[in-house]
Amino acid sequence: MRATKVYVRPLLEYATYVWLPHYNYAINVIEAVQRKFTERLNGCKDMEYPARLSYLRLKSLERRRLTADRILT
Predict the structure, then answer these.
(1) Total-model pTM
(2) What is d(CA 60, CA 53) in angstroms, rounded to the nearest whole number?
């Protein structure tokens, strides 16, 4: 989990305000990176993505972007 927060999230959230993805295909491509990474963690392989997020106490990247946008505005 620490590797996700340290290595993956900063890369995926870098300059979100500049290139804010608002097309569904772009959001799905970015979210797929976190989906694949969390799938490889122990005990999470057979879970669906929303279940993995709640099990790991993570928010989806889309939700984090929306929260960051609200804070910015």
Answers:
(1) 0.67
(2) 7
Residue 4 · residue 34 · CB < 8 Å: yes
Q: Would you say 31 and 58 are in contact if contact means Cβ atoms under 8 Å apart?
A: no
Q: State the Cα torsion 65-5-13-66 to the nearest 10°.
A: 0
pLDDT digits (tens, 9 = 90+) for 43-71: 888 899 899 989 988 888 888 888 888 88
Tell me the C-alpha distance between 30 and 22, whole Å: 11
Give the closest residue to 31 by CA, choosing from 56, 60, 4: 60
List Cα–Cα distances, 59 to 9, 22, in angstroms.
11, 18
